[in-house]
Fold this protein.
Amino acid sequence: MSTNRGFVVERWTRLSIASSIAAVALLVVLALAPLLFAANIVDSLTTLFIYLILSVMWNALAGYAGLVSVGQQAFFGLGAYFAIQFSYYGISVYPALLLGAVAAGLLSLPISMLMLRLRSGEFAIGMWVVAELAHLLVALDPLINGETGVSMIALNAISPDDRRAYNYWMALVAMVGLLAVVFALLRGRLGAAVQAIRDDEDAAQSVGVRVLAGKRTIFLLAAFGCALAGSLWLGTSITFQPRTYFGIQWTAYMIFMVLVGGLGTFEGPILGGVIFFLIEYLFGETGVWYLVGLGAAAIVFALFLPRGLWGTIEERFGIRILPVGYSLRMFRSDFPPGGGAAAPDPQPSIKPGVAANESKAPPPVELG
Amino acid sequence: MTLLAVEQLDARHGLLQAVRGVTFKVAAGETLALVGANGAGKTTLLRTIAGAHRPVAGRILFAGTDVTAVPAYARLRTGIALVPEGRRLFAGMTVKENLLVAGAYGRAGPWNLDTVIDAFPLLRPRINSRASNLSGGEQQATAIGRALMTNPKLLLLDEVSLGLAPIAVEALYRSLEALIAGGATIVLVEQDIARALGVATRVACMLEGRIILEGNAREMTREQVTQAYFGLQRPRRTS
Amino acid sequence: MIWVTQLLNGVLLGGYYALLACGLSFMFGVMRIINLAHGDFAILSACLVFLIANTTDISPFIALVVVLPLMALIGWGLQRWMLERSLRAGMLVPLLTTFGLAIVIENGLFEYFGADTRSLAPYIGDFAYDSWAITGNVYIGYLAALIFALAVVLLGGLKLFLTYTSLGRAIRATAEDSDTAALVGINARAVYGIAAAIAVATAGLAGVFLAMRAVFTPYSGPEQLIFAFEAVVIGGIGSLSGTLVGGIVLGVAQTFGAQINPQGFLITGHVVFLVVLAGRLALTGLRGRGGIQGLLARQP
């Protein structure tokens, strides 16, 4: 329809082509980083990649599937826990870290069956309960020594320099891989489906979008991604303490990164992750005030800049670095756009008075 | 005396401009029937007058005061009550509660629980039923009664006969006639042109957001209105 | 005999959960908002009462007279300055902003009060541990009984208020359909403000009783939120009487769980919550009244 009116749909703008080339170049440099940079820089980058994974995964959940989870730390912790289990049963370190994430990702399937049937707020706290329960059950495992925790001893068998490089590469591959998966999903059918779900779940359902299947795919992906972040964290820190891995602060970080960067944008969470990394580097020492600041920033962004920094930049300047969305461009034609008969005529075909947002309202709840 | 004056009103419904430059007046004691096809902008116009919908441009004067910026809940206190399309009763509350909740915030006047029940005797046995358990006619009577409980000077009725059995429509219009005889000022949106012409003193026909025909109900023929309704007639105004 | 005692303790603990959950349930019922800072408001209130009791000789019960109106005011301000704007921005935004607020409150309290574990029990004298002996070895604590009674009175009172007063009807009408409520003259903004005030004040009340019967730290809020939420969901969302039932089920499950294993207190509670949730989804479909209350109720 839009082409009739003189527009073409574009994915690749000139900027997005240039930036895609730049991204490839950046990747090559990043891949060689352990050979080029000092140890503390490599460690910092590894941490940054883990934050980026968390940020992108949480954004996929909330920004695309409309699922606000305050319990993703369940998978973060479980990924690390299962990795310790696999390592304990003799699997070598790095395969164990990956398998730990896979196991936690698989476990998310039965969890999704219950959780995805809950609505917004119920889902949010429901996931929190799942995380608490996972924390308590993991702490019961004699292998973990309760809240004291345990070390992944096999990691100590690898020399620190090698370990640093392996961790780095694994985090890099994981981050790029997960970004690629999210990118592919968003460009495919699922992308359109989940965005329809986010905009109006009931309407999406009524036009035949398979709401539950779309949400489930994203949920499983986010569970696996967060679990991988958790096992990578274990790879860098060696020790596993249930309270740290299952802590609610991970959710606070994720919400901060996504809200500041831009909820529901592709590039936003990446920007948010980098900002969070810098803020933590600069202010992490201030402890409690730093956390107060994160919470306050999340409130301010949610209320006043709901599309985050990236969304605001995108809106104001109309730029798009990666070809994820679509843009409409007027095309030149010898014919007047649309022609006479097809002049846009907003003859209302739906009945006025049915407010568009009515369908979004949840079913009424009776009090008493 | 002019009770309601709408001047150059523009209102949007989403991206559509549902009401375009509408101007009309309603005198006290008058019944104006607003007719037009689905999507002509009648409901948006009524909701805008009631304050449930914010206009893009234009003014609404009520009893000489500009109420354009007054929110819906406060506009009710100046004496405008809307019976919304689809009735929109509070389904979990009883008939009595639906009536009382409106009575608590309206103006003082002759209408109270007893007088409303007297006006709509069919509600008497159902007074403690939940609104969700009522028949269509009972629901509509409750909706009108709820608006009356606020003792309005102007009653806006949106498609009150929609979805009712013929016998219920008959009963409803008898009640309306009694209201009109009692001196009420009413703006009525109605699909049934014959019915509208039967109770109204004046008729306005809307097409694509504009009033294209307006006149005295007695002087206008059903054909004129029908033609305007389907957009077969060039815009024209009588009286 | 130990099981009878535990059952009794569980029921009384359930009274505390009902008290705690009351505001959460009420706010969700009226505004469809789950306030993720609910538990932190409870702890904030406990900290304020502690501050008064600790620096003056004023009894915590009297300090409540000052703190509860303050909490109500905070609730009203919360609605006016945060939730109203959040609600306009979509269904998900209130979750994000209240979560952010929770982080701010917890860490702000930590900054001011430190990490110490505190209790109000020392400030209420014998009342903290006195009890009636029912039989030789079954006791009911004064405080636990008071909390239970308060929960029943509060939930019952709220129900009566919603049914029989003009303001209560306006609240119910707004909860059902705020657009139409405006058309009958109800100022939804004011109603939401009152609802938030009631919700936060009752959270504050619960927080003070938590501090009397147990201990708390600035980071106790999230756990209280989870307990409150579990009680609400077990009892059926939006139902005030269900909240009492839900609180009792949770309390009994936890005390029985604790009897089996020291870690069992929390685990059993969470498991019962998930089982009820699964059962409710399987039996009553996707939405609407659910939980045990939904199964027992005669209504469709």
